Amino acid sequence: METLFNRKFNFTPSSNDHPLVKLRSNTFDLQEDHVKLKLTITETSEFGDQLNKEDSAAVILDYINKQYDAYLREEMKAKRDLQAYHDTRVHVCLYFVSPTGHSLKPIDLVTLKALDGHVNIVPLIAKSDTITKGDLQKFKARILSDLNDHGIRVCQFPTDEEEVSEVNAKLNALIPFAVVGGDEPLYSLAAKGGGGARTARGRQYPWGAVCVDDETHCDTAPLRAALLLHNTEHLRQLTRELHYENYRRRRLLELGFSEEDGLSLGELHERQRESLAAAMRSAKDAQHQLTLQRAGEIDAKVERDIAALVARKNAQEKRDAERAARLSAASRALDEEIAEFRRRQKEQQQQKPPVSRSQRGGGSSSGGLFSSLK
């Protein structure tokens, strides 16, 4: 990476003992042909070093999707400033293939298949100076054949624009790019158009030198031109209009929006907010109706209980009234019997003959008379 971007990044060497792929991101400010560029490089440290390699691709894909999700959340904010937002979306994945000279490894096929459709993939053959020219071309052909057989799409630079069509056609013919890393100063590269030799970078071997800036030695210089000179905006556009839109569409479908909605993110956000507000109002209304229903049921029960109490009270009062009436009737009957008894008693007394005075005391009168005559 230092050779490709022609600067020191001072990456910390990996320990090769981590149980999963370790991602490390660093951001640098570059300037290419008076154009300032903010470059973020994310290392997939220790990729392929684990005994269990099944989760290696998942870690990378999860990182890519998290960057898309962060951008989507920023887009859906009511107050957003995408111009000031630091875009961390991955615009290109440089996938280094080991220079085996045979074909892609299973882990390469699994990882590339997982990344396909999520990021712009540019395959590279690492340490390509370890393979002869003839074997290198055969290796490139095998890699392309493996990619085609497994339906893996890699980045193709556009050839429909007249300004870059010829250059990009040559760049596409170099895929996968054969790269070499080396920053040792060399003085064997002649300047184009004459003018003597110029300093070049590369590797010095006992049998000769490999110049990383010489297109006849490796594809490092064409790769640099493809990424930083001719197709920088194309990679951004492809990420924005294809890969990010695919993620955005999937994410919005998960949130319940239809593809036929045809709304902007702001409108979708407002629609989602209104939908949530309507759902809250509906839930509140349902709760209110339930409260009213329960209150009505309680009121009805209270009314039934009151009616039952009133009915029992009325029945008791009726029984008491009937009992009182019976007692009153019995009392009247008794009074009548007493009155009748007294009346009869009185009549009986009146029916007895009267007793005269002489009858009441006749013997005594004669004796008295005799006594007086003596």
Describe the 3D structure.
- This protein is of the alpha/beta class.
- It has two domains: 2-180 and 218-254, 3-Layer(aba) Sandwich (Rossmann fold); 264-335.
- Helix content is 53%, strand content 14%.
- The chain contains nine helices and eight strands.
- The strands form three sheets. It has a three-stranded parallel sheet, with helices on both faces. Strands 6-7-8 form a three-stranded antiparallel sheet, with no helix packed on it.
- The chain is rod-shaped.
In N-to-C order, the SSE pattern is HEEHEHEHHEEEEHHHH
| Uncertain runs | 364-374
Strand content: 5-15%
Instruction: Provide the CATH top-level class of the largest domain.
Output: Alpha Beta
Computed structural class: alpha/beta
Mean pLDDT: 82
What is the end-to-end distance?
Answer: 188 Å
Report the C-alpha radius of gyration, rounded.
56 Å
Oligomer: single chain
Count the beta strands.
Answer: 8
Q: What is the fold-level CATH name, i.e. the topology of the largest domain? A: Rossmann fold
**How many domains would you count in the coordinates?**
2
| Shape descriptor | rod-shaped
Largest sheet at a glance? Answer: 3 strands, parallel
Q: Percentage of helical residues?
A: 40-55%
Q: Helix tally?
A: 9
Q: From the coordinates shown, what is the CATH architecture of the largest domain?
A: 3-Layer(aba) Sandwich
Domain Septin-type G: 1-254
Region (Disordered): 338-374
Keywords: GTP-binding, Nucleotide-binding
Family: Belongs to the TRAFAC class TrmE-Era-EngA-EngB-Septin-like GTPase superfamily. Septin GTPase family.
